[in-house]
Specification:
Number of strands: 11
Helix content: 25-40%
Mean pLDDT: 95
């Protein structure tokens, strides 16, 4: 994968320290701030910029300021068995609640072979792949999903009913990186449209439809229309049945049900983040998690070996004319990390403005190289 970059870089350690200090400045306890910063930076390490520093201020800091996200996460255990956990995050940092959940599930799975958990009354938990790879780093299988603000329309519909609802898997392999499938059940996710809007780019035609069934491409307008409920994202496969859009619709519904029903939480239109009269309110998102230990089957090393062989055979298969490489899930993200690890986080103009605004607001002592250019 040929990678080029024209934006300025901020060293990883500098960006990490800055975000920790910024989160602390808005009331997030230090240990929690470290978790939040690492989740966001992991997005950028993998090249998933729609969920990295790009979202630091608008999704987390701004929501803390608005009062729709509480900086201190008071986790309540609603139910726990040897293999399951149900938590209430009480509108705190979704990343913190998810980290504590996965810590518990990994330990339970080591003892009992499998474990599952669900969280209700939570907030945005960052990239789903972060939680799944907490398991794969231990040689185990991680599965997770989350609901979100309504964005996706059901097949043959135009009303945004479900979130972009990722269904995510991380499988350990004998290679340098795990197999990680982390993607929304819509063609494009809201975070990607936010990224397009910040960069002044249009959203690809055919990925968003108006309430009249028309294709929309104006990224900034789309974000407004999604909030207003007059636009919706198309599910994977696209509009209607011709390209099997019902499959993406079905998987989105699976994630919606598991995210809400396992924890007895809220769903769909209850997750808009605004009241009927347009005032901000808590999001009350739900997440689910499963961890499976291959040692309870034929062993971790056997699993990793076979998983790796499958990936290698897929990459070695016959390529389409003009194509030089076949990828398996997680490989492009690993390549991106190799490219960025000694350079830092690339930051566009929009993110630069956010960083400066937060720094100046809090009076933090940071000077960034991009300010001198």
């Amino acid at each position: 994968m040929g990678i080029t970059e024209t934006r300025p870089f901020v060293p990883w350690d500098v960006m990490n320290s800055f975000m920790i200090d910024a989160f602390k400045g808005y009331g997030v306890p230090e240990e929690d701030a470290k978790i939040c910063a690492d989740v966001l930076l992991e997005s950028d390490r993998r090249g998933i910029e729609s969920h990295g520093c790009n979202r630091f201020k608008p999704i987390y800091i701004d929501r803390i300021v608005r009062g729709t996200l509480l900086p201190v996460t008071n986790i309540e255990i609603l139910k726990e068995t040897p293999t399951t956990v149900v938590m209430d995050a009480h509108d705190g940092m979704g990343m913190v609640a998810s980290f504590r959940m996965m810590e518990k599930l990994v330990e339970k799975a080591k003892t009992y072979g499998m474990a599952g958990g669900a969280i209700r009354n939570s907030t945005h938990y960052g990239i789903a792949g972060y939680w799944a790879t907490m398991a794969s780093k231990e040689g185990m299988i991680g599965i997770t999903g989350t609901n979100a603000r309504p964005s996706i329309a059901p097949t043959f519909g135009v009303e945004n009913m479900m979130g972009t609802n990722p269904l995510t898997f991380a499988l350990p392999t004998d290679e340098e990186f795990p197999f990680v499938l982390d993607c929304a059940t819509s063609i494009v996710q809201r975070g990607r449209i936010e990224y397009y809007a910040r960069e002044g780019r249009p959203t690809p035609a055919g990925t968003v439809i108006s309430e009249n069934g028309e294709a929309l491409t104006d990224s900034k307008q789309i974000l407004e229309d999604l909030v207003a409920g007059t636009a919706a994202l198309a599910p994977l496969g696209g509009i209607g049945e011709d390209l099997a859009g019902y499959k993406g619709y079905g998987y989105a519904a699976v994630v919606e049900i598991l995210s809400a029903a396992l924890a007895g939480g809220e769903y769909m239109k209850a997750l808009t983040g605004v009241t009927a009269d347009g005032n901000p309110q808590m999001y009350h998102l739900g997440h689910f998690f499963f961890v499976v230990d291959p040692d309870a089957f034929m062993g971790r090393e056997e699993f990793k070996k076979i998983a790796g062989e499958i990936c290698r055979e897929l990459r070695a298969s016959k390529k389409a004319p003009g194509e030089s490489r076949i990828y398996t899930a997680g490989e492009k993200e690993y390549d991106m990390w190799l490219f960025r690890k000694d350079k830092g986080v690339p930051v566009g103009e929009g993110v630069q403005k956010d960083i400066i605004e937060v720094r100046d607001k809090l009076g933090l002592d940071y000077t960034f190289d991009f300010e001198n250019k």
